[in-house]
């Protein structure tokens, strides 16, 4: 499984996931929340792992998020994650909190660990109480050997997703192979600020909690928080990272010579998962990448990128393979960033379409062909400074409407 | 035409428009910007009219907006508006400015008035130069008697609109009948902050410029700026009001006893046009009204209302007649307003669906029937204060995608 890595290189393993790092197992089963598909999953580490999380900014935070934040805060460690799909346990009041604690307690009991070492996450419909009998029955059986398969876990976390989302990387730190694995779900209610998605990252790195936490926040702002599907920020979503130290490297901190290498690995995992979520956006046919360069600040670059990637008009134009740069310019103009209209250059891939406040003549047929690709890039050069950012999203299609006009019922 | 009005009453005339007030004429013709439909229109007042305008907040303001703002600023008066559809004259650089001035100059010449008394407006595709020969030919003929018909004007300003948008009101002030008439266009690229729409309001009231201007700003914030179709704020749009004083009332100012009456009339006109634009949103089948009450400030109420009305997930759920209140709650939660989750009540029409942080049991079939109406109301009670706001929008449908995946080409 583990390819040898040479110093300073990061090996990317597309088919790997949260069980790539040493000491992690994962699995899942069908407990009855969905009609047929798997709906309850877990990740377990052999030993307690240093943990960090980022959580939705929505003021209606769901019960499992509250329980998980409180639990991680106790000693900055968790040993397991239990996740159900199909029901978000959000807007469920006191009973919802009671249910989340019960799930945590029961799974901790199966594992023989303290309750606060279990993180609880949920995703799905808002405002319905969990059918706890089904969930509890599932928890009783989930650690049985036949359910232990990372593919079961990857399936169990999905809702309207069409594809599983996984990635692994390996690097050499202090002569040891350090691995990072990731899995995610999410295809709707996706917008910057920890929107409807769950991200799970595991690593066998030995790493200090506060540095792990800082790296996760920084990288989340550049990856998970830079994707949008529909502009809606959900009540439930979070990214949690577990580092169990089994790789045996010297403890990573900001002062470790390979700190940047580890961060690069974590960023590759986060960015890959974020892009997979954007590409799997409800009804999407394309992944759209918006690169903004020459901004006077990182925040300005991000705001311009998010404004473009969130525009329904840009998203439908790209679905229609229409090089409608006027909609891109419009989205830049209302981003809230004080741009200079006459300094801006916009390109679709390598085709410049707007420069110095004016459209650039371009071959419409060539542009159309470019937009027919599955991966489309919009490049914006603001010419105001040196900061840059990238945002990812997807096109807006008939199927988006179809899926969301009939999701709940 | 003019029904008698009694004191303090406002008579609403659904079939009237910008020529209801005394001394205004309007017309339009086909000059060749569209294939067949009318594309050049005008409003003219017999005498110079006190004028005020509100303009897009998009940083890429189109050439005609710049010319119009500069012209109105000269003496706060205009006597005419010339408008073309199908081409926005936006992102057209120096040539675009030259073209806008040329249109202004040529139409002023036909009228025999000074250039700065003509407002110029455009709507349509961004980034293409106007075919000035066609426009200039149109201007030469547009004042011919056979083109003078307010219905021609109403048609000439449309782009993807399916319906003309007009309204008139009359009231008695100082023993005189004062009329206000309105017309608007807009169905896409519509979002608060003077998004892609043009609004034209005429009145024969005698009114002081600064008070007219203040009233327009205040009322625009409660009407035109509270609608959204797709969240995109365009480069071109504006509302302009012309008051020619021919009603003969004593000059209206804030101190006039009927100031509030006049403002009510102006608000009725603005709100009616705003709602007509929202209802005619690209692909829309329903008008959605979001009423937010009990906010701690007007801004908070507006932010919550706009967050809900802008949510693609709420819009698709209502298209699918799905009482998916979880999406409404989610949109409230990410509005940026520090709401109290456990204080909130949400109703669909008269059907409560969420109260005190929990879903309220309701009859799904009854809710579905309610959502099948053409006019749907979402009521949100924040229970934090006394301020309220209303926002309007439309559902998100297959046809929205269809229209916008192929608009330009």
UniProtKB/TrEMBL annotation, chains A, B:
<feature type="binding site">
    <location>
        <position position="196"/>
    </location>
    <ligand>
        <name>substrate</name>
    </ligand>
</feature>
<feature type="binding site">
    <location>
        <position position="159"/>
    </location>
    <ligand>
        <name>substrate</name>
    </ligand>
</feature>
<keyword id="KW-0012">Acyltransferase</keyword>
<keyword id="KW-0068">Autocatalytic cleavage</keyword>
<keyword id="KW-0511">Multifunctional enzyme</keyword>
<feature type="binding site">
    <location>
        <position position="409"/>
    </location>
    <ligand>
        <name>substrate</name>
    </ligand>
</feature>
<keyword id="KW-0808">Transferase</keyword>
<dbReference type="InterPro" id="IPR002813">
    <property type="entry name" value="Arg_biosynth_ArgJ"/>
</dbReference>
<keyword id="KW-0963">Cytoplasm</keyword>
<dbReference type="InterPro" id="IPR016117">
    <property type="entry name" value="ArgJ-like_dom_sf"/>
</dbReference>
<dbReference type="GO" id="GO:0004358">
    <property type="term" value="F:L-glutamate N-acetyltransferase activity, acting on acetyl-L-ornithine as donor"/>
</dbReference>
<comment type="similarity">
    <text>Belongs to the ArgJ family.</text>
</comment>
<dbReference type="InterPro" id="IPR042195">
    <property type="entry name" value="ArgJ_beta_C"/>
</dbReference>
<dbReference type="GO" id="GO:0005737">
    <property type="term" value="C:cytoplasm"/>
</dbReference>
<feature type="site" description="Involved in the stabilization of negative charge on the oxyanion by the formation of the oxyanion hole">
    <location>
        <position position="124"/>
    </location>
</feature>
<feature type="site" description="Involved in the stabilization of negative charge on the oxyanion by the formation of the oxyanion hole">
    <location>
        <position position="123"/>
    </location>
</feature>
<comment type="subunit">
    <text>Heterotetramer of two alpha and two beta chains.</text>
</comment>
<dbReference type="GO" id="GO:0004042">
    <property type="term" value="F:L-glutamate N-acetyltransferase activity"/>
</dbReference>
<dbReference type="GO" id="GO:0006526">
    <property type="term" value="P:L-arginine biosynthetic process"/>
</dbReference>
<feature type="site" description="Cleavage; by autolysis">
    <location>
        <begin position="195"/>
        <end position="196"/>
    </location>
</feature>
<feature type="binding site">
    <location>
        <position position="404"/>
    </location>
    <ligand>
        <name>substrate</name>
    </ligand>
</feature>
<keyword id="KW-0028">Amino-acid biosynthesis</keyword>
<keyword id="KW-0055">Arginine biosynthesis</keyword>
<feature type="binding site">
    <location>
        <position position="185"/>
    </location>
    <ligand>
        <name>substrate</name>
    </ligand>
</feature>
<dbReference type="Pfam" id="PF01960">
    <property type="entry name" value="ArgJ"/>
</dbReference>
<comment type="pathway">
    <text>Amino-acid biosynthesis; L-arginine biosynthesis; N(2)-acetyl-L-ornithine from L-glutamate: step 1/4.</text>
</comment>
<comment type="pathway">
    <text>Amino-acid biosynthesis; L-arginine biosynthesis; L-ornithine and N-acetyl-L-glutamate from L-glutamate and N(2)-acetyl-L-ornithine (cyclic): step 1/1.</text>
</comment>
<protein>
    <recommendedName>
        <fullName>Arginine biosynthesis bifunctional protein ArgJ</fullName>
        <ecNumber>2.3.1.35</ecNumber>
        <ecNumber>2.3.1.1</ecNumber>
    </recommendedName>
</protein>
<comment type="function">
    <text>Catalyzes two activities which are involved in the cyclic version of arginine biosynthesis: the synthesis of N-acetylglutamate from glutamate and acetyl-CoA as the acetyl donor, and of ornithine by transacetylation between N(2)-acetylornithine and glutamate.</text>
</comment>
<feature type="binding site">
    <location>
        <position position="282"/>
    </location>
    <ligand>
        <name>substrate</name>
    </ligand>
</feature>
<feature type="active site" description="Nucleophile">
    <location>
        <position position="196"/>
    </location>
</feature>
<dbReference type="GO" id="GO:0006592">
    <property type="term" value="P:ornithine biosynthetic process"/>
</dbReference>
């Amino acid at each position: 499984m583990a390819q040898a890595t040479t110093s300073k290189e990061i090996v990317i393993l597309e088919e790997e996931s949260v069980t790539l790092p040493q000491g992690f197992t994962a699995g899942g089963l069908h407990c009855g929340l969905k009609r047929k598909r798997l709906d309850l999953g877990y990740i377990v580490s052999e030993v307690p792992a240093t943990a960090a999380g980022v959580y939705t900014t929505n003021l209606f935070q769901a019960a499992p998020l509250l329980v998980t934040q409180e639990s991680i805060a106790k000693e900055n460690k968790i040993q397991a994650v239990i996740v159900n799909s199909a029901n978000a346990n959000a807007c469920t009041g006191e009973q919802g909190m009671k249910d989340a604690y019960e799930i945590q307690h029961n799974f901790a009991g199966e594992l023989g660990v303290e309750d606060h070492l279990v993180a609880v996450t949920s995703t799905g419909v808002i405002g319905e109480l969990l059918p706890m009998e089904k969930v509890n029955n599932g928890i009783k059986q989930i650690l049985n050997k036949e359910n232990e398969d990372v593919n079961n876990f990857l399936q169990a976390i999905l809702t309207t997703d069409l594809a599983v989302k996984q990635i692994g990387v390996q690097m050499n730190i202090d002569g040891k192979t350090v691995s990072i694995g990731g899995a995610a779900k999410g295809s709707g209610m996706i917008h910057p600020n920890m929107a409807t998605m769950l991200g799970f990252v595991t690593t066998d790195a030995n790493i200090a909690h506060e540095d792990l936490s800082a790296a996760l926040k920084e990288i989340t702002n550049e990856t998970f928080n830079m994707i949008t599907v529909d502009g809606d920020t959900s009540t439930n979503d979070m990214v949690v990272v577990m580092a169990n130290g089994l790789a045996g490297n010297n403890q990573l901190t900001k002062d470790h010579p390979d700190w940047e290498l580890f961060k690069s690995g974590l960023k590759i995992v986060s960015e890959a998962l974020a892009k997979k979520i954007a590409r799997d956006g409800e009804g999407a046919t394309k992944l759209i990448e918006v690169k903004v360069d020459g901004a006077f600040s990182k925040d300005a670059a991000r705001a311009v990128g998010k404004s473009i990637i969130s525009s329904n008009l840009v998203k439908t134009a790209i679905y229609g393979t229409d090089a409608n740069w006027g909609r891109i310019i419009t989205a830049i103009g209302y981003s809230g960033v004080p741009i200079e209209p006459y300094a801006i250059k916009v390109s679709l891939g390598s085709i410049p379409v707007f420069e110095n406040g004016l459209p650039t003549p371009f071959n419409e047929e060539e542009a159309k062909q470019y937009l027919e690709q599955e991966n489309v890039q919009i490049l914006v050069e603001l010419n105001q400074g040196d900061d840059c950012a990238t945002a990812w999203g997807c096109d807006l299609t008939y199927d988006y409407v179809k899926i969301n006009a009939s999701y709940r019922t």
